[in-house]
Amino acid sequence: MRTVLRTEGLVCPFPVIEAEEAMADLVDGDELVIGFDCTQGTQSLPAWATDNGYTVTDFVRTGEAS
Is 38 a residue of the active site? Predict the structure, then answer.
């Protein structure tokens, strides 16, 4: 299952907190896609995923971060 988490407009650490809560509802094999525009999120979200044993399969910049 693919879940899309929209966190645009939230400043860090809130995108990470939202991602952590969303991951709790997923099972092995599910995918979480996170939309965010927090500049710090470009580092903190992939780092959080890696630190917690999640695989980052793709990272796409679609616009300017604020």
Answer: no
Which domains are delineated in the chain? 2-51 (3.30.110.40)
pLDDT in tens, 5-64: 999 999 999 999 999 999 999 999 999 999 999 889 889 999 999 999 999 998 887 777
Q: DSSP for 14-66, please give it.
A: HHHHHHHHHHTT--TT-EEEEE---TTHHHHHHHHHHHTT---------S---
Could you say which of 5, 10, 11, 12 is catalytic? Answer: 12
